[in-house]
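Open question from group meeting: does this chain pack into something compact, or does most of it stay loose? Before anyone orders reagents, we agreed to write out a predicted structure and look at it together. Recording both the input and the output here so the notebook holds the full record.
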Amino acid sequence: MAKNGKKIEELRNKIDAIDLKILKLLNERTGHVLEVGTTKRKDNTEFYQPDREREIYERLTTENTGPFPDHALKSVFREIISASLSLESPLKVAYLGPPATFTHQACMEQFGLSGEFVPRSEIEEVFDEVERGRTEFGVVPIENTAEGVVSHTLDMFVTSELKICAEVMLEVSLALMNKSGKMKDVDRVSSHPHALAQCDKWLKEKLPKVPVVDAASTAAAAQAASVDPRTAAIASEAAATLYDLRVVEKKVEDQPHNFTRFLVIGKGKEPKKTGRDKTSAMFATKDTPGALYAMLKPFASRGINLTKIESRPLRSKAWEYIFFLDMDGHVSEDPIKEALGELEKLGSFFKLLGSYPKSN
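Structure tokens returned:
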């Protein structure tokens, strides 16, 4: 036992020495980051560059030989980059709140914990914060694998001049929570309509006679449950911690592996090509036979993969629609550039929403 204790002490001493080396290197890295920040200010260059972050993550994971896992490596360096950015120029990011919503989690996933996150109660308010320059970026939900597109976000892009700078993909796991942590105390269930729809089957099986109440967000439902012992919320486990609730049951969503996609919006320059990019655009067709076929042909003829196409009513004209496209590739690539040029000529309305790195 004494021999093992000595070996453990020796290993801990080695770990302590390595920690000091890491600390020294972190401060050395930070010094270089501050120099970069000074140069950026002189050149009026964007501080936040998602393409540069992706480059860092991909280089490190490629070089990683283990046993430290790649996903943890990304988490560690996300916080290093976040802290460094806060020294260069503290980032303010608006998001669909309140705190502990999945959009809030997407913010932390993208920007780390050193960002200044500003909750807003409506998607329109998030766009407004960025457009008025009160925050550098905004984060909004765009679609869910179970419930489909968030139409209000799509509608905002029709009139907004903001661009998509990045995307975040987040696995959504929901929990039922209340003050006591007991099912017998649940007299009503509250959550955002999308979250309730994702748990519809579970609710009908487990709580068939309990009324369901819509809330502005999953976090708002948790907030309400924190002051009403008879109300249970469906929200993230992070909301339970924030609002001092106890989890009654975890993973109450009907469909496992449920993901929500979020968009980072801003005024900045187009992120550089990374090799794993996505481009988004919107267009309206002229009211002629075969118009939609003609609009999509430029992509098919060039072998461009359209990963999403969604239609929304054009509010200014009855029975006319705007289409939203996502495609693989960057606007700097000739096939994408040419196809979008043709699309602009053919349509009655066209807007490029941005090219940006794909989420991991």
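Observations to bring back to the group:
The chain has a mean pLDDT of 88.
The longest strand covers residues 163-171.
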